[in-house]
Amino acid sequence: MAEQRLSPHSRRREAGHRLSVLVPRPFTGPLDYKFDTPLAPGTVVRVPLGRQEIVGCVWEAEPTHLPVDLRPPRSSRHVAFSSLRAIISVETHIPALPETLRHFIDWVAAYGLSAPGMVLAIALRVPAQGGGMKPMLGWARKAGPLPESLRLTPARNAVLAALAAHGPASTAALSAQSGASAAVIRGLAHAGVLEESVLEGSPMSATPPEPDYAPPTLSAEQAEAAHALIEAVEERAFNVTLLEGVTGSGKTEVYFEAVAAALRHGRQVLVLVPEIALTTQWTERFAKRFGTIPAIWHSDLGQKARRETWRAVADGQQRVVVGARSALFLPFAALGLVVVDEEHESTYKQEEGVLYHGRDMAIVRARLAGAAAILVSATPSMETLVNVQKGRFRHEVLESRHGPACMPEISLIDMRDHGPERGLFLSPLLCESIEDGMKAGEQSMLFLNRRGYAPLTLCRACGHRIQCPHCAAWMVEHRRRRILACHHCDYTQPLMKACPACEAEDSLVPIGPGIERIHEEVQARFPEARLLVMASDTLTSPAAMEEAVRKIAQKEVDLIIGTQIVAKGWHFPDLTLVGVVDADLGLGGGDLRAAERTMQLLHQVAGRAGRGSKPGRVMLQSYVGDHPVMQALIENDFIRFMEQEAAQRRPGFWPPYGRLAAVIVSAPKETHAEALARHLALNGPHGEGMEILGPAPAPLALLRGRYRFRLLLRTRRDIALQPVLRHWLAGVTCKNDARIDVDVDPVSFM
Ligand SMILES: Nc1ncnc2c1ncn2[C@@H]1O[C@H](COP(=O)(O)OP(=O)(O)OP(=O)(O)O)[C@@H](O)[C@H]1O
Ligand SMILES: [Zn+2]
């Protein structure tokens, strides 16, 4: 209203410039501010918001760079210039966000129907938190010989080697370079080996990776694939290649050649890995090939290390980053290559806060930067295979393992005929094989994707099952920590003696195995064996992981018992037997990709066996041996399996043949959630090629004290979901603390 009363004359008299600023808050778009001088988009500024001062970024007023379908509706709010608040200051110590990153942020927001400000928050989390660039303190090697009494562990050696190679460095940089923890570095300082020193220039000033430091001799098959990848990078334009190769075929070595090509052209490289734990071994291999350590990026990294990396990536100094999906939001100055290792992994999906699929967004990131993308897998996702079939992605294949190694032999143990005694979980057949392996001095691994001791605690007297008070989920017993824990929220309670329902004493029994229970069984069966348990809650730091890997590599371990953390990427040459305790575990539930995912996980875990000179064996314990997943695994026929899967998804337009979005309605009261879900269904979009499924109570019908209902919107591929969803949800108001969450391309169906 005020706007209309302003005459053109009075508007001209106003001094200053109108600028759009995106702030890290859940608004639909940027807000307008004024400032004395014009500022380029990307400039990081401090602005007033309500009574607060916050850091935001000068932004394009309209997202015209987005495809029309993805553009959010134009904001109708227009504030008169005279009422605009002024930008307080320019944050000169933070580099401007590059255009490719800003456009990427808009893309992620628009695709997933998230507030752009909340996506910006991911990108600004690091630089906006720290102060300016103070003189940096770091560590240098103290002059003189090493003290006699010094115990030289591998981690300490790595620190000394990093210092010798790169000179003085901050704790974080040193830790990144050496893979050793801060505690190791402090320990060396304490022992009088290191001293504090002021660092000059950028704290990350590591020697840049050398593309020709130590190239491997590639096999003919590898060389051919590497050549294609190098060419893809040298086009200096967006393209995507699937690098498919059996486990142990040297996919990493091959895509390292593409990394080298990008480095030769002065461009930056981002490598995404699905599991932080994997960065340790990856980093070592990288160092062997390129003579230096890459930057590592994930949320467990210290604030300081992250700040340094952020800057070094922005000014182009840091050439290679390996990390988790959040590394996509780093301000790369000249991105030339994005690699997504184990592209089929569902862990690439961010399931909380701003939802996005790391693999899909990596492709968007590459496109916006004009970079090449390489997707790497032994068992590519159906989505990626369809893109290859349609000619959108290129395809390179490695068919055999590198060197003398051959593919492991996979066999099935039918638990209906060869099950163990009551209360035990390992078939006598599997135990015999473990024993044989031990006699031969070889290593074995037992895989069970379940942490803790037992997934369910039951009262023998009254049948009561102990459930989380906040979630529709059983409490999982963790015997070592003496607690019951909910794996969906943070709730824990001490182990109890009496049943909480009938108060019977000593009537509670654990049902089913977790890896702690398998550990117990193995200990009883093989008291001499040297065991190692690997799970996310036993290996909580990179240092612990590193120590575990060292033990295995130096053959201080006979048998590894692990969750999915052991399934991926590891290369242990002396590991010859893999036993899958419960191959059927992932098959239950109404998940669209349950079979595909189980296949991929088991194939990958099987791929850990026999990677050295000795042949490998894999034994799958299953009650459903005829299941297509088990058959595909023992026949090693991944192609046929995926064809069968495709045949099931194609007719109903299930992804990737159609599009899918989940709408999750939740509220503290069940009736409120249900009523809103029904209202949504009644007022949902309809028309040719689109359909609403549900509402139905979510499989996890109660989560953190909120009742949940799910709807699915399914459309044909040629219909964009976002405008439909936006239109549908725009008319709905949430009362009673109800909430609507949208998940475009859902991976989890809980
Ligand atoms: N050309 C080569 N020269 C020397 N070593 C090689 C070569 N190719 C592969 N290797 C070695 O073979 C092993 C397996 O390779 P790599 O880990 O890259 O396989 P992968 O295909 O990534 O396997 P996975 O899918 O199981 O992770 C590694 O130790 C690697 O260093
Ligand atoms: Zn819970």
TrEMBL record:
Which residues are Zn(2+) 1-binding? C459, C462, C499, C502
What enzyme class is recorded for this protein?
isomerase
Query: What are the entry keywords?
Result: ATP-binding, DNA replication, DNA-binding, Helicase, Hydrolase, Isomerase, Metal-binding, Nucleotide-binding, Primosome, Zinc
Which SUPFAM superfamilies is this protein grouped with? P-loop containing nucleoside triphosphate hydrolases
A GO molecular function annotation here is: hydrolase activity
Q: What does this protein do?
A: Initiates the restart of stalled replication forks, which reloads the replicative helicase on sites other than the origin of replication. Recognizes and binds to abandoned replication forks and remodels them to uncover a helicase loading site. Promotes assembly of the primosome at these replication forks.
Family affiliation: Belongs to the helicase family. PriA subfamily.
What is the name listed in the Swiss-Prot or TrEMBL entry for this protein? Replication restart protein PriA
